[in-house]
TrEMBL record:
<dbReference type="InterPro" id="IPR037510">
    <property type="entry name" value="PdxA"/>
</dbReference>
<dbReference type="GO" id="GO:0042823">
    <property type="term" value="P:pyridoxal phosphate biosynthetic process"/>
</dbReference>
<keyword id="KW-0664">Pyridoxine biosynthesis</keyword>
<keyword id="KW-0460">Magnesium</keyword>
<keyword id="KW-0170">Cobalt</keyword>
<keyword id="KW-0521">NADP</keyword>
<comment type="function">
    <text>Catalyzes the NAD(P)-dependent oxidation of 4-(phosphooxy)-L-threonine (HTP) into 2-amino-3-oxo-4-(phosphooxy)butyric acid which spontaneously decarboxylates to form 3-amino-2-oxopropyl phosphate (AHAP).</text>
</comment>
<dbReference type="GO" id="GO:0008615">
    <property type="term" value="P:pyridoxine biosynthetic process"/>
</dbReference>
<keyword id="KW-0520">NAD</keyword>
<dbReference type="InterPro" id="IPR005255">
    <property type="entry name" value="PdxA_fam"/>
</dbReference>
<dbReference type="GO" id="GO:0000287">
    <property type="term" value="F:magnesium ion binding"/>
</dbReference>
<dbReference type="GO" id="GO:0050897">
    <property type="term" value="F:cobalt ion binding"/>
</dbReference>
<comment type="similarity">
    <text>Belongs to the PdxA family.</text>
</comment>
<keyword id="KW-0479">Metal-binding</keyword>
<comment type="pathway">
    <text>Cofactor biosynthesis; pyridoxine 5'-phosphate biosynthesis; pyridoxine 5'-phosphate from D-erythrose 4-phosphate: step 4/5.</text>
</comment>
<feature type="binding site">
    <location>
        <position position="131"/>
    </location>
    <ligand>
        <name>substrate</name>
    </ligand>
</feature>
<comment type="subunit">
    <text>Homodimer.</text>
</comment>
Amino acid sequence: MNTKPVALTCGEPAGIGPELAPMLWDALKDELSFFLIGDASHLPEGSPYVEISAPWEAPAAMAQGLPVLPLPMGAPRVAGIPNPAHAAGVIASIERGVALVKSGEAGALCTLPIHKKALKDGASFAFPGHTEFLAHLAGVEHVVMMLASPALRVVPATIHIALADVPKALTPHSLRRTLEITNAALSSQFHIAAPRLAVAGLNPHAGEGGTMGPEEITWIAPLLEELRRTGLDIAGPLPADTMFHAAARARYDAAICMYHDQALIPIKTLDFDRGVNVTLGLPFVRTSPDHGTAFDIAGQGLANPSSSIEALRLAWAMAKGTAT
Ligand SMILES: NC(=O)c1ccc[n+]([C@@H]2O[C@H](COP(=O)([O-])OP(=O)(O)OC[C@H]3O[C@@H](n4cnc5c(N)ncnc54)[C@H](O)[C@@H]3O)[C@@H](O)[C@H]2O)c1
Ligand SMILES: N[C@H](C(=O)O)[C@H](O)COP(=O)(O)O
């Protein structure tokens, strides 16, 4: 059973990440071990932290303070105002975390929020977000973004692309891979014996028999029928607007939606404080809170650590093989 510490990447220094890290240590110091990869000078004044030189030192260090594996960023943090000089360090923190998980020195990766535009502006970051960057670092062709909470698990079949590009990006191959990876993860990583998937239609009323769009009839329904024949338990394509009330949620273990907001609005509405972003299909465990950098409240003592606490807990549980 893996009990190696979780590597926590620092995320965007101008965001609420540096405020959350000490709160996560205080909340979880008796429950699990993790270490922050980042610049300790960005932590709030007086934060109890312990500089470590390697992940193996983190469990013992937890008793004294937040373990920090130093990654100096060379410029001070100004809450709410991203500094392009930090961009390279933010990216390096993610790369370092991946390297430590791959080497087995860390048991899992948990990423504090990045600001996608700040990385693009400061370092010409070529990826839409962590998910795509991690797939690149892991050399994996297809990964799945799942947002999970006790109330709901959702998967967007397309992620960080313009809505206008969704119909073209949705293909039988990509949806098949998303469904297969999700099904496998629910079984092997969430220990659900017979996963039940529910797939949303792309169009209003799931196309209303073709009168509101052809995709459900031309390829989505045929693909789901083909996958049912291979043994997957899949309902749909269903009208998305009636998939998320309590009775509907009781009928499935994960909802697969066609685009980002179709999936993320329901879970962030139902369970913003307990939602966790987990990337399926990587050769290592990766979680992240379901929120972003929250520049509008950064530095004001208003950040709620709940989602990040759940993200670290889920990473720890998935690495130990005890997630549900
Ligand atoms: N895991 C990640 O790396 C991640 C996740 C989501 C968004 N982002 C990025 O973050 C940036 C800002 O995104 P956004 O404005 O759409 O969403 P956001 O989650 O940063 O903020 C949305 C609203 O929720 C509030 N909020 C968010 N987290 C909170 C917390 N922990 N406690 C209290 N209030 C909180 C914010 O104050 C804001 O009013 C963007 O660059 C986005 O891409 C990153
Ligand atoms: N789509 C995610 C959300 O809204 O919570 C967020 O942008 C995180 O994506 P990455 O983990 O790919 O950065």
